[in-house]
Every structure is written in C-alpha cells, then in structure tokens.
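Narrative of accomplishments. A recurring question from our advisory board has been how the design workflow behaves on a single, concrete structure rather than in aggregate. To address it, we present the structure tokens for one chain from the evaluation set, followed by the sequence designed for it. No filtering or post-editing was applied between the two.
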C-alpha cells in the first residue's frame, strides 16, 4: 500500500539511544521555527525517571517541545517527545501512549513508532537515526521504506555510539547518511519537493506506461533481472519513491537519469526488492503449517532419508528459519530424524548475506516466543544470533525463479508474498513450475493473498484459509516452460541506442549467459565450510545442490581421507564439479556427495595471486599453484 495523499505534511521521527542528546540539539539548532513539519523524538529513556528532554531541546528551537500524551493530534511545527517507560505509536494522525509490553531489556520503541508512522503516513513519513547502541530502529526503517517514506542516518564518524547506525545502514535502505547539521536542509528539501510534486506524483501510473520498456531494458542490462512481468503498480510505486528521493518530477526525467547513471538502476533494483518480512509472518498460518504439514514431512522417515524444503524469495531469512524451527521442534519428538535441508533463495544479495549471518534485531521477540528464542538463538549485544544448528539447516543462495533452473524432489515449497508482485501471466506460469519441483504429494505454502486458482488441476487444497496446498500425486509431472521469463525478450532492450557504459554491461550479460549455459557446475565455499553459492548448472545438471549441504562440506573438510578438500577449503577455494580429475584423493567421497554420480571435483582458489603464498604444498590438484602437478 502506498499513502498517496501528499498534501499532508511530513512527520519526521528521530530515533536515538546512548549519545543521542548532542545530535538532537544540533539538529534542532539548524531547523527553522516553521518548517511545516512535525517532529517526534523516540529516545531510549530511563524508565523510572521523569525526562528533562523537552526542556533541554526547547533551548535549541523556537518550536514548542512537549512530552507526548495519549490521543494528541500531531500538528506541524511542533516537537513531541516519547514519555519514559512507554510505547508510542501513531494512528490517523493521533499519538497513542501505552505501557510497554516487552520486558525492559527487550523493548524496541523506535521500531514500534517508525512502523506505525510508516503505515499511517506512507510517503510523508521520514525516519532519522541518530547515535545509539543496539539495533532498535532497523525494522521500523524497513517499514518506512516499504511504505514509500524517506530514511536518513547520522554519519558514523560523527556519532558517539554507532551500533544503531551500522545496523540501520546495513539494510541498504537509508537514503542519506549525513552529519546531523546537514540533515535539516535535506529534510526541508524533501518536504518542499513533496508539496510541489503533488500533482505530478498522482498520475505517475499513467506517465510510466510509455516508458516501461526503457525502464525494464535498463534494469535488465544492468542487473540481469527481467522485471517486465512484475505488476506495473509495483514498478510505479518503487519508481515514485526513487523520483522523490532524487527530487525529480516527471517519469521522463527519471528515465533520463536512469540511463545516464548506472548506479541509479542499482538503486531502483534494490527498491524493487524490498524484502519486508518477519519471523512466523502470519502466526496462524505457521501454526497450521506446524500442525498439518510438518509432522507429515517427517513421518516414516529414517536417519538415511531427507526432507527437502525450498523457500522462494526468502529475503533476510526469517521465513526459512521459522520453518527450520518448526521442523526441529517436531524432529526432537521423534526417535529417528531424517536429514533436513532448506534451500532458501532470493535475487537480493544484500538480504541473502544478512540471512546467512542469521543475526536479527532484538525486536524479533515480538514474533518469536521466549521459549524459541532461548532454544534457537543466542543473545549478544542486543541482537539475536540464530544458533549454528539452525543455520546449518538453511542453505541460502542467489537464485531467480524466473531465469534459474528449478530445484527438484522437494517436499515443501514455501513461496510467500512473492507472487503478489508478479503480473497474472507470470503468476500462472510459476504454478506448473512448483508442481514440477515438488515430489509427488509435496506441499506448497503461499502468502495470504496468493492462491493456486489458475491451476486447480495441479494442487489439492489442504487448508484454504492458511494457503496450504498439496501437489496432486496422481498427476504426472507437468511439462514446464523454462525459463519462465524469456531472456531474449526483444521488448526489454528498449528502443534507444545503448550508451557506452551499458555496452559494457551488455558484455557482462553475455558473459553471464555463456557461463550459465556452458560453464561448469560450481559451488563457492567459504573457509569455514559454508557453501554460499551454487551456480545454475549445479541445479540443472546434477541436482547436486540437493545433496551437498554445509554439513557434508564440513564432514568432507574434517575427514582425514579428504585432506585435499580440507586444504582447499581452508584456503578459501572455489570448488567445481568439473571432470576429469579422477585421481584426486577423496574423489570417491566427493562422488558420493554429488549423489553417486560419476563425477569428480577440483578446487580452485578465487584469489590465484595469493595462492602461491597460502598453498605451500603446491599439490597437483591445486589449479591456483602455477598449474603444476608437483608433489604427489
Ligand atoms: C516481500 S518479500 C517476501 C519475503 C518472505 N517470503 C515473506 O513472506 O516474509 C519478496 C521477496 O521476493 C524476492 N524476489 C523477487 N523477485 C524474485 C525472483 N525472481 N527470484 C527470487 N526471489 C525474488 C525479493 O527480493 C524479496 O526478498
């Protein structure tokens, strides 16, 4: 949803904790007395003392500064301060003060206010992060961006405490990272632009139509991803947000900027992929999943069996970990437990790297019970880190359901809140793909606004309300058209000649396509044994991705008989399943890891220049060591 009544004034929320007073004072010193903006300050305050913050700030601004009271109507040119020991939210322009629900150490008042502000004001919401510890504010900032607002963060080097800022900036969603003194001018510019652009922004949906081909063309050339079959309204909303951020008034001007500045295509791409998500999103649906599906997935399976799950569009990983938690909980009630593998995919590399870390702000306590937090997470420095056992079940990889070959033999596909962004044709084509990827009688878990209505012949409904479906076991595999998107679609290339910089991108595109089609199947493994990337051909040619898990890599890495593999991993190598290295020690083990197929493997460092230094043995199998088959 986008709030499109831009005639409303801007509400700017400032979030701070330790070291927040100084930047707040500096901010208001630079702000004129009648900016036409309302300000709400969410400062972490001692819960059992009155606060002097309104008086202290009152010395630096001519605007009235007051402690927020329940049911106060927010008006421009006024500053409201959160009371101590309270949760502050806003609805229909009214402030609401409530007693905090969370225990003292786990409260996240900045997230609560930012999130309610995002829902209430849409594009007229601005969030500003100032000095502080912890991670409060990060989730709220994501909501502000999702609803079309603007986000700023204090420059790290100017802050007394920067943890809160690092966490916010790591989302990649902050529009401006600035010294506090420069923020008022940027905010005023934004508010003025919203007012003057009011008329233009309203008809953006109409303006965008004649430019769609060019926009898709630039995006595809720059990022390799085709958005031409995503909903126009999704593209228009994100484009509107970028136009606001750049203070551009017409789509035509924006398209010119897009073509001139390659990095603007990256920003639009990032905005298109905002992966708002949280743990157990739609708690009831996850309860139903835990009750109706999870036990069936594990039923009758022994320790040599596998349960294979794919989470499509996993964003920052919360959905994959939620399913992992459900599976672990049930598995711990069984005598024998099959091997659990969760393949979690997305095209947003920033989100995936957060997912792999499995480190989440303390506000996840809102959606994860205390018992689960205790059992599956470690609390450190105001964040929750998913325990290693949980992380090891989930393999996060870059994978587009549109252009990459599908996984197969899956017991469950969870694809929630992704289809809603797709146009009807692509929505229709994705369902046969899911049918193809599932084992007979495998399950499909969709988001609350998604359904299998266009392909009822392929799925039974297990639970209509919670969008749980099951592949019809009797039906043979449906013939799927693949890739779902046509990578050679002529209409995405746009009518204009490509500027130089885009020609380079075209060459990159070509290299990517050639690699995907003719390159070896390959996996990138970090030194700790984590597999962080599977190339498309791993899935297509061997299904190896399904058999290789981090634990297999670890087992291989720690086994004496596969010293070569351990050594290659410890030097941060690139590993590939390219034949014909038949005589490689441990090759038998790797063949098993690859599903018993006749193929061997070869380790190749990604950084050949450093290999000479790191690989002292110059083993014959090490492609990075001057290519010599030397010591064996
Ligand atoms: C709204 S989020 C949904 C997150 C999560 N599934 C949930 O329900 O909470 C949509 C996600 O789909 C991802 N996405 C969009 N297009 C995709 C594609 N072609 N292949 C894989 N992921 C895609 C986006 O990057 C984003 O992370």
């Amino acid at each position: 949803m986008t709030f499109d009544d831009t005639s409303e004034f801007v509400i700017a929320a400032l979030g701070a904790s330790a070291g927040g007073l100084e930047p707040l004072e500096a901010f208001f010193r630079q702000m004129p007395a009648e900016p036409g903006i309302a300000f709400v300050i969410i400062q972490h305050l001692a819960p059992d003392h009155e606060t002097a913050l309104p008086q202290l700030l009152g010395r630096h601004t001519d605007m009235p500064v007051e402690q927020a009271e329940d049911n106060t109507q927010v008006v421009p040119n006024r500053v409201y301060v959160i009371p101590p020991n309270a949760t502050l939210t806003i609805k229909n322009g009214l402030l609401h003060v409530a007693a905090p629900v969370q225990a003292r150490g786990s409260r996240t008042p900045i997230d609560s206010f930012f999130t309610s502000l995002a829902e209430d004001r849409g594009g007229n919401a601005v969030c500003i992060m100032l000095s502080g510890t912890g991670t409060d504010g990060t989730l709220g900032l994501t909501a502000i961006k999702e609803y079309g607002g603007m986000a700023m963060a204090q420059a790290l080097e100017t802050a007394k405490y920067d943890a809160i800022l690092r966490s916010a900036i790591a989302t990649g969603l902050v529009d401006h990272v600035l010294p506090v003194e420069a923020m008022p001018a940027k905010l005023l510019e934004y508010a003025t632009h919203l007012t003057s652009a009011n008329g233009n922004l309203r008809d953006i949906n109409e303006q965008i139509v004649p430019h769609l081909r060019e926009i898709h063309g630039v995006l595809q050339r720059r990022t390799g991803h085709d958005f031409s079959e995503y909903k126009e309204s999704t593209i228009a909303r994100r484009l509107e947000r970028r136009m606001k951020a750049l203070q551009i008034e017409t789509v035509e001007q924006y398209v010119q900027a897009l073509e001139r500045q390659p990095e603007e295509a990256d920003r639009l791409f990032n905005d298109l992929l905002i992966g708002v998500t949280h743990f157990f999103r739609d708690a009831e649906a996850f309860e139903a999943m835990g009750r109706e599906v999870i036990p069936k997935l594990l039923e009758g399976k022994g320790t040599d069996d596998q349960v294979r799950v794919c989470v499509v569009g996993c964003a920052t990983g919360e959905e994959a970990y939620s399913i992992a938690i459900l599976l672990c909980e049930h598995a711990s009630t069984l005598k024998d437990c099959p091997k659990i593998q969760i393949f979690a995919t997305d095209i947003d590399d920033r989100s995936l790297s957060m997912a792999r870390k499995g480190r989440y702000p303390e506000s996840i306590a809102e959606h994860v019970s205390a018992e689960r937090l205790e059992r599956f997470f470690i609390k450190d420095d105001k964040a929750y880190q998913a325990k290693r056992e949980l992380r090891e079940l989930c393999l996060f990889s870059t994978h587009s359901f549109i252009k990459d070959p599908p996984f197969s033999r899956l017991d469950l596909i969870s694809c929630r809140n992704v289809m809603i962004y797709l146009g009807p044709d692509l929505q229709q084509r994705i369902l046969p793909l899911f049918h193809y990827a599932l084992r007979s009688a495998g399950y499909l878990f969709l988001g609350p606004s998604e359904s299998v209505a266009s392909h009822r012949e392929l799925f039974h409904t297990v639970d209509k309300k919670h969008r749980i479906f099951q592949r019809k076991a009797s039906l043979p595999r449906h013939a799927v058209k693949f890739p779902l998107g046509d990578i050679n679609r002529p209409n995405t290339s746009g009518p204009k000649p490509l500027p130089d910089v885009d020609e380079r991108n075209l060459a990159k595109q070509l290299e990517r396509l050639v690699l995907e089609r003719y390159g070896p199947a390959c996996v990138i493994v970090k030194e700790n044994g984590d597999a962080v990337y599977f190339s498309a051909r791993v899935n297509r040619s061997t299904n190896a991705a399904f058999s290789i898990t981090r634990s297999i890599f670890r087992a291989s890495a720690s086994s004496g008989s596969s010293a070569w593999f351990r050594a290659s991993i410890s030097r941060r190598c690139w590993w590939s399943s390219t034949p014909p290295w038949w005589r490689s020690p441990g090759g038998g083990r790797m063949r098993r890891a690859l599903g018993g197929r006749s193929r061997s493997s070869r380790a190749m460092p990604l950084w050949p220049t450093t290999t000479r230094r790191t690989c002292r043995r110059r083993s014959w199998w090490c492609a990075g060591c001057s290519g010599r088959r030397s010591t064996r």
